[in-house]
Amino acid sequence: MIAVTELIESIKPEVIQVFGNPEGRFIKHLQPVESVDEDTLDWITRLKTNKQFVAEQSRAKVILCDETVAYTEGIVAQDKVLIQVYNPKLALALIADAYFEKKPQQGIHPTASVHPEAEIPSTVSIGANCAIGRCVIGEWTSILPNVTIYDGVSIGRRSVIQAGAVIGTDGLGCERRDDGTLVKFPHLGGVEIGDDVEIGANGMIARGSLSNTIIGNGCKINGNCVIAHNCILGKNVWISVSTTIAGSTKIGENATIFSQVVIREQRTIGNGATIGMGSVVTKDIPAGETWFGSPARKIEK
Amino acid sequence: MIAVTELIESIKPEVIQVFGNPEGRFIKHLQPVESVDEDTLDWITRLKTNKQFVAEQSRAKVILCDETVAYTEGIVAQDKVLIQVYNPKLALALIADAYFEKKPQQGIHPTASVHPEAEIPSTVSIGANCAIGRCVIGEWTSILPNVTIYDGVSIGRRSVIQAGAVIGTDGLGCERRDDGTLVKFPHLGGVEIGDDVEIGANGMIARGSLSNTIIGNGCKINGNCVIAHNCILGKNVWISVSTTIAGSTKIGENATIFSQVVIREQRTIGNGATIGMGSVVTKDIPAGETWFGSPARKIEK
Amino acid sequence: MIAVTELIESIKPEVIQVFGNPEGRFIKHLQPVESVDEDTLDWITRLKTNKQFVAEQSRAKVILCDETVAYTEGIVAQDKVLIQVYNPKLALALIADAYFEKKPQQGIHPTASVHPEAEIPSTVSIGANCAIGRCVIGEWTSILPNVTIYDGVSIGRRSVIQAGAVIGTDGLGCERRDDGTLVKFPHLGGVEIGDDVEIGANGMIARGSLSNTIIGNGCKINGNCVIAHNCILGKNVWISVSTTIAGSTKIGENATIFSQVVIREQRTIGNGATIGMGSVVTKDIPAGETWFGSPARKIEK
Prior knowledge:
9-stranded parallel beta sheet; 301 residues; homotrimer; 29% strand; globular; mainly beta; 11-stranded mixed beta sheet
């Protein structure tokens, strides 16, 4: 049971106004729409068309909503608490993170294999059957099971590496000899991952060739993505599942890249750019633009 | 050595008619076309153009074929047994499964790490170096090596999870704040996988946000696929390798989805729909239709 | 410290001419361009437009370059050694491999699980938490951590399997019955991987149905690729990240396939063909041609 007053306090900068009396009220859980009950913290996204109706009909007694939902006679009669916030979805995410998400257990699982010179603070979680090379990991970072981290990787604080990810593997850039044989280009660089980064399940971040591959603070890279050698991602880049970024490409901060995109090597994607699902990006993309298609072209919003 | 009479009995509903005397006859193995010998159970797919010729020329003495292959004088003279079936490829698959496929060993491999409250019947196989959370697994299901299953997953009976797959990981849906920072949306739901499902190697099934991600009975999802949070797959969906289905999409039963397709979030794919290789699906697809391309469009067969 | 005379000797067939006196000179490391110092072996790719300028300005004393870079008065005055080679990038790769790449430690990591009948010479490296079935591995091959190898796989000499790869898994080709249920086609074949092959992280090579899947000598297959059942790759095929090759496709020797390509089942790709990034290949591609797009079409260079 979580006190509604405490909950409001925890998201204070997001709150516009509270209607009804939160004192002595509690919520118990978050629920999908079909299972909302009296103990649920319900929420109404800003994008819904029938927000007032939802607020009136919800079985929940405490509701996150935006400023367009009115505290009507009907809602008063139901003794509901309306918490008006700037972004109900964001507020819900913050509350879920603070009160409901289970954090992995700190410490190194006995089945994990860890290089004796790896630097791992006691607040770090290393899951079952991980293989951790000579790397540096920051405070409060979680490595889920079956992850492989090669030598020469550094990861910041409060980051999360989901199960099965591989960090610091060689890329396979090659030179072809006249007889057709392939000679692999050197991979002597490392990987630097910032603070508050998340790398999804079965993802792969390759080490740099001579310098490092860099993932900026706050990036969230979904599962099954590939970030090739020497890519540099600015802070707060969001990448959906199954996207591939070829070698030496730079992604500006706050870029948003949807699922199963592929970006050519040595491209530059500007700050705040958006790339649609399934795009094949062969060119540089200027800051703030939205591109889509195969090959990708600028689209006007 | 397998008695041909026993073999015919095992696929009885598929058999149209048997020519020649199967009594006292045996087969030893299945072989690729270039290695067929007298001990092979040979088969002739319905799609071949020269079926009669193949039946006459095969070195095998026992042949699965359809009703268009005749029991000629020449075949009689070679003392061959013809087993006419509705679908020779299906009949072969049933026989291979019954007599030739090696099943993983039951029990939990000593190197696997299993949550003490996981519910795992003794008929289940858990492979080497798996990491198994608090989950429920049905009778006769096989988990191959290096699989990770998070807490909150249920898997039905006779299902197979191939090596390296990750079931129940967080998706990384995020809300972006005005300053660009990303806040991860909650992932408190689970994953429900039905009976007779197969998940391919290095695949990823994300947990739901508030409700569950659901994979219906009999689905076969090939390797390297991603099924994102809150997807719901009806029964008997077949998905080829490297396909990605974004969040909250519904796939109707008996749908057929080829390799490296990506489907946008919150779409609905109708029962029995077919999606061609490499398609980028941005719209809903009605039942029974075939779509292809980037972006995908309906194609007339 | 590496003697420059020894280094030149090691790449002798690549050397056109050496200017300056390499006797008694040493290099210490390779460095990214921004960190080049007096101890660096610097290199100038043939593709650069200002090669002479770079050679004059480099802080390095020993430089790999092509025959168009002149041994000028200025370079003499700086006491530099110019090593003219046919392909500076190739020469650098050969030197990196010989002197700078760290090889995985030989032997079987104690956390790996290995089938008692697997044939593994003492020069092989098996990483932490691998699961190795009944397979045959050649001399000097390295298997990185968390790799799964199924029964029935053979791997040649000096090959490398990067972390998280799965070799020999079942494909999931199925026959659909009239009631919609899916029956998996048999996977009784194996996988044959040649000498000097590299398979990237989290890649997947499926076993053959009745015969084997074959990866020829010298192939380099980057991370997150899928090679489906019964594919046959000739020697020295290079495949970039996240590419998928569906079942029974043949790839000719020296083919070059870029990132996130998908190739339909049962296609034939000719020797030396090139396929551009993100292509959806539905047709056969003749030898030596370059194709690109969705669906892929021939492009004139």
